[in-house]
# Entry
Amino acid sequence: MTPERHLPMTLLIRGGRVIDPAGSVDGVQDVLVENGKIARVGAKLAVPQGAAVIDAAGMWVCPGFIDMHVHLREPGHEYKETIASGTRAAAAGGFTAVCCMANTQPVNDNRAVTDYIRAKAESEGVVRVYPIGAVTRGLEGKELAELAELAEAGCVAFSDDGKCVMNAELYRRAMEYTLPFGAPVISHAEDHTLAHAGSMHEGVVSTELGLQGIPAAAEDVMVARDLLLAELTGAHVHIAHLSTAGAVRLVRDAKARGVRVTAEVTPHHLLLTEDAVRSWDANTKMAPPLRSTRDAEALLEALVDGTIDCVATDHAPHALSEKEGEFDHAANGVVGLETAVTVLIDRLVRPGRLSVATLVSRLSRDPARLLRLPGGSLGAGAPADLTLIDPDGAVTIDPARFKSKSRNTPFAGWAATGRPWKTIVAGKVVWECPPK
Amino acid sequence: MGWTRKDLLTIRELEAAEILTLVDTAASLQEIATREIKKVPALRGKTVVNLFYENSTRTRTSFEIAGKWLSADVINFSTTGSSAAKGESFVDTARNIAAMSPDVVVVRHSSSGAPALLARELSCSIVNAGDGAHEHPTQALLDLLTIREKKGHFEGLSVAIVGDIAHSRVARSNIHGMKKLGMTVTVAGPPTLIPPYAQELGCKVSYRLEDAIRDVDVIMMLRLQQERMHAGLIPSLREYSRYWGLTLDRLAAHARPDVLIMHPGPVNRGVELSPEVADGPYSVILDQVSKGVAVPMAVLLLLAGGRSGEAQAQ
Amino acid sequence: MTARPSRLREKAEVLDTAALDRALTRIAHEILEKNGGAKDVTFVGLRTRGVTLAQRLAAKIASIDGASLPVGTLDITLYRDDLDMIGAPVVRATDIPFSIKDKTVVLVDDVLFTGRTIRAALDALIDLGRPKMIQLAILVDRGHRELPIRPDYIGKNLPTSRREAVAVRLTEHDGEDRVVIEEPEEA
# Structure
């Protein structure tokens, strides 16, 4: 994604509410962008000669949002999504960077695939793409992938996401081996023997619906294991898509003990519960499943107090045929790039359950920090990645208008206030909200 | 109370009055089986499609006979040898059937929720003839009809349902129906076969057969499937039948002399029921079978009888 | 019988208790006269009040002639044509615990109107057995026939307008024996 030379290299974003948790800024300011980097943030800046001006009055101006858990499906499943369509979906959702998981076809367990992804992202993507490499060859959980080479090729983390590395000894060795690379291991924490054949949370609703359930313990057991292995090895482990109150408690205790653990949560786990499955709509089916109200409340509490470090969508595109049939046969996962910001603002920020500053931090500063990525702040010299949000913009979520190739969202039809307005990467506007 | 629903998908969503309408109608239709000419013109010109993804000779033929006695045109769509066997998706099959303009589609499927999907896709009436472990409304209606015939009423009766509750759609539908009609239900079996939060369904839970069958009016035994043993849920059929199988001496020791024994069938003699119990005087299992056509007739009549279009008010 | 409009008021009394009883007595005699006695005569009553009337006729014949004639109940819901059905059908039991083969069946109903109910009853009876003859006894004939159906025995001929309703009240169901005409309140 090469900046085009004929566009102005200077951009002034004027009069918006600048929210930069890294710089402790929250107020009406101007932001000056030069040559793809933040030049200055200040009040009533002078407009330089030849600068493009964005009048951001009434808008929020934030560091570019980073979604650290996205499935771009390329190579191999391009019918669900490609790097081109997925990054456009990201931009439309206000994200300036995504980290893409390794469960492609072929699996990103070797440098050739990493190079392919990066090249595609460079030529066809519109936001930054950071690949995540596999922990084990082919995601089979038997042998380590060539992790050093993956790190050198540009992988920012390692994960068998989609699957859990069931062999504790192997996972321990992976954590040890990756210590020098400064890249965390991301755990899809799910004991497959406890979870197998389940299609929703094991609880009151699964009993009523006659669906095989996945107990919260399936996640808690593996989170506990991964935390203890992290403690043993000194590695940084990041728990993907946390979904249970039990796992929250384990992470909180581990952090208090000094274990190097971080965690993420998806918007759907914050906003939806097992009751959503009563509709039999397979767009409520994902792994881990939607849990109980108590779990959702614990997740929000943890997001607020920082036990959960960031929001990540686990954007998982699937074709219509994979999601429209019998619930227990349907594929797991929902898209999330184009709905996250809207639903979080409307259902958490507006009612006062999550502050604006915290939301912005969990979507920008915190993921950047835990993955050591450039960005996540609007300090001078930072990359000019910005997410501009219209906090009063009304929208009804319409999957037919998604930039993603896939439409599998549980939020279809939701009426909300608060939406992305413009997305800027390296000083260039890569997406803006279409005029009414 | 008049029936106004387009579909019969679950017992759980019905009001007690609606359940009684179904049971009363079925009771009135039983005499048709005794006539020389077993045909009434009520559903003349209507098309009923039986869409059975799971093998079930008994339920399918009950619906087939029911439709024919009501003068409907009945089409049996079984999945072996059909496009479904060649990999056509459930939803695509449903859409193809919709193109035939059926009035009722009766569906049995191994996936919970499959009939609800059909009800969303198709504008005709959908009857759930059993979906996964979720519900089996017509079996429950049959059981309720049998109970009322033998006991004369519903209110205040106590029922024990024994066996693999976790995987039983019959148990779920019966629990919902019995609760709404004022009966108390206890489910019993080994803990691995009782689903989590079972009491939230509205029943008591017991792990001992002897305790569950004491002083109840009705004992309903469920079929135990071989697969449960292989899934690590029970160690062996032998152990299951030793501790949760119903035998004459257990009945004599703990149950009331006027207790009713029921089983949705088919019976694994020697596993959940000893042969003496299955074929003995307590048992109404054969009676349950003879009502098997009256209930589908009542369901088809209430869904598809009446002025088409206007009658199906939501 | 079509659905009643929601608000009706009594317009006039057509038969009082004594007149209703005399009509039934006369019909009982006519049945015996027309059939040359009670041999092979059976009653089948329609719906609730037709059954009651049939039971009363059977009782009168028993007191006149000594014969104890059987009375059956017929529910014609399963035989109605589409136009008669309002909403989902409500099916009540049909109970004819005797053979009607080669018998004379006297079909009994309270009010004869369009004739569609009787048409359905004829279909039902023919399916249920093969009677030698079917005769029709009606307490009140209010006209407005839509099919070629004619009663053999009539309690009272009563020309009515379509807006009106005829209410037959019998002690067993309504606490009194009367027949009245009702009209919509807005009139």
The longest helix of chain A spans residues 216-233.
